[in-house]
Amino acid sequence: MSHLVRKLENFVRLSAADRMMLNRAAAQRVRTFAPRTDIAREGEKPKDVHLILNGWACRYKQLEDGRRQIVSFFLPGDICDLNIFILREMDHSIGTITAVSIADLSREFFDEISAGYPRVATAFWWETLVNAAIQREWTMNLGQRTASERMAHLLCELFFRLRLAGLADENSCSFPLTQADLAEATGLSKVHVNRTLQELRASNLIVLKGKMLVLPDLERLMSAGLFNANYLHLDREGRQLDANE
Amino acid sequence: MSHLVRKLENFVRLSAADRMMLNRAAAQRVRTFAPRTDIAREGEKPKDVHLILNGWACRYKQLEDGRRQIVSFFLPGDICDLNIFILREMDHSIGTITAVSIADLSREFFDEISAGYPRVATAFWWETLVNAAIQREWTMNLGQRTASERMAHLLCELFFRLRLAGLADENSCSFPLTQADLAEATGLSKVHVNRTLQELRASNLIVLKGKMLVLPDLERLMSAGLFNANYLHLDREGRQLDANE
DNA sequence: GTAACATGCTAACATAAGTTATTGTAGGCG
DNA sequence: CGCCTACAATAACTTATGTTAGCATGTTAC
After folding, report:
1. pTM for the complete prediction?
2. Which of A75, B81, B222, B244 has a Cα at 20 to 30 A from A9?
3. Are A88 and B136 within 8 A, CB to CB?
4. Do A61 and B137 count as a contact with CB atoms less than 8 A apart?
């Protein structure tokens, strides 16, 4: 099952036809990108909506003097802004972290969805609202949390999101971000990211080595990061949230 | 003309019927709130989409230990998340700054829009995309800009947005935020906000007194805040952006 | 096999911003 | 009228985080 379908089914129960429609769209117009390359650049005219099939990517913005901020991460199953093509130009860039494959989704695809696939349309709205909530949470993270809280929070978020897409084990996941990436995402310097990771290691909250992240005690990491998963809205109608699902 | 219509017409040309539809919705189910009260609280079930008719409000989030972050401001003409009612609970609170009047927009209203008012539907998508872009810009602001850049940037953003809704003069606007509000929005301490404002005053970039903000030299303030208005997407098809419009 | 480079780690030092506290000022209201 | 209270201003001091630099390790390319 595709990461997208797997993720959306955490919120909406899809029919076989819904799933087929999504999988068909994800198999057309596929492109691949090498690590550390741009999928789209600030200033360009947005043409298609991108669905991440495999690999990690990020949105980033850059100031004239070179300061860079990663404003969000894209994991497999994530979709960049719906209807982005109504805008004249991109206000940010999208770049890859690892090798990435994407499917380009056309305006017509979304017309088809809203005409004949109401559950998928709802699921896409859920995706949009959750993305907005994540962005607000990042604002909170950068504005109020200390360096170690911030790092713990980011690691929790990524782990939860990977698990949602079926990409994490019980307490570990593949983790391709460098300390420089973490610095750009948290607004900290590289040196301080290193210090902060050492601190989390010393508290036995994380094991991070060779592109692999292990979280021996997720509960403690969550409380270290003042992490509350409510903003991910993992609550399908009529179902209680199970932390291990 | 309502602030909402005025704002949306910066992006999409609306028909008389479109405008009538919007104005009718804005006249029904109106509620008013005193300054410094909550319109909605984190944890509640979202029921309606709120349209701000008059006054200033904000979204905020709070940590268990009391740290508060304002994650966005609502100005007259702003709409809180479309389709928010598909979620089970609010992940943030909405509170007023000044006295505020809002109109509650129902699910049925949006059904009507998507069935028969395509230009309004597009305009609402534009609103959604711009709100997302603003939230990303705040992430950038908190992550990379220094205190004075950050403050200058925020002031520019608010001034541009007010002007869009027809609420600013040539180089001034009403400005009800306290220094404590600015602190919660910028992630700075109140004392440092004060220092930062003094600095902007000393550079003759702002005059801020008695709930009134004057920007004697917007160009210089923009460059002090590394402000680039592209993320507000003020670019109606076929029209060049005019900085004074 | 070695050069070249990206990444991670650490130390020493610098600084932007936070904290606590005090004072001033202007409204609101009994 | 005078007492509150909210807001703004400023000083003195502390601290979290940034900066610069250097070294170690591992990976890739030739």
Report:
1. 0.95
2. B81
3. no
4. yes
